[in-house]
Design brief:
single chain, 177 residues
Length: 177
C-alpha cells in the first residue's frame, strides 16, 4: 500500500473541467493503495456515507459551517429566519462565513453555486496541509472529485427539466359553481 504511488497516479482536477477519473476508479485505486480505514474515509467523502474518520469529521463540520452560512444568507435575502435550516456545528470559521457572504454578492444563482464550490475547494486544500505526500491529500482529492463530478453530471436538459417540474402549475377546474 502506497499513498505516494496513489497520489502520483491521480490526474489533476480542475473545478471548471470534466472529471478526468470516475469516482468508481478513484475508490478502486484507494482500496488498492490505502489502508481499509483510509479507503473507507475517501469513499465516504465521495458518497456522504457514515464515517468517523477524523478527516471526514473535520471536513463535514467545515461543510456544515459553509451550509449554515449559506442558509443565513438565503434567509437574509428572503427576509426570513434561518434557524429552521441550521445544523449543529462543532467548530467556528468566520472566514468561511465571510467568503459565503461574498459569494452571495453574485446575482446569478449558477455563479453563486460555483462560488460556494470554490470555497469548498479552498477548504479542502487547507485541510490537506502542507505535506504533498500525506494521505490527507487523497482525502482532499476525494472532496474535489465529488465537486467536479457533481458539476460534470449537470446538463442543461436536466436543469430545464427541474425548472419545468418546479414551475409546473396543475390546473384544477371547479365545476361545482
Amino acid at each position: 500500500m502506497s499513498v505516494i504511488y496513489l497520489l502520483s497516479s491521480l490526474p489533476t482536477l480542475q473545478l471548471d473541467a470534466p472529471a478526468p477519473i470516475t469516482t468508481e476508479a478513484f475508490v478502486a485505486a484507494c482500496r488498492d493503495q490505502l489502508s481499509a480505514a483510509d479507503a473507507a474515509a475517501a469513499e465516504a467523502l465521495l458518497t456522504d456515507a457514515a464515517c468517523d474518520h477524523p478527516f471526514v469529521t473535520t471536513w463535514r463540520d467545515r461543510d456544515t459551517i459553509l451550509r449554515n452560512a449559506a442558509a443565513y444568507q438565503r434567509a437574509r435575502l428572503a427576509g426570513t429566519d434561518a434557524s429552521r435550516w441550521l445544523r449543529p456545528e462543532q467548530g467556528c470559521d468566520t472566514r468561511i462565513g465571510n467568503l459565503v457572504e461574498d459569494a452571495f454578492d453574485e446575482k446569478d444563482p449558477l455563479q453563486r453555486e460555483k462560488a460556494l464550490d470554490r470555497i469548498r475547494w479552498l477548504v479542502a486544500e487547507e485541510l490537506q496541509g502542507p505535506d504533498p505526500l500525506n494521505v490527507k491529500n487523497v482525502f482532499a482529492y476525494a472532496i474535489k472529485l465529488a465537486i467536479v463530478a457533481r458539476w460534470t453530471a449537470r446538463t442543461p436538459e436536466q436543469g430545464q427539466a427541474a425548472f419545468d417540474c418546479l414551475t409546473e402549475t396543475p390546473l384544477t377546474l371547479n365545476t361545482d359553481e
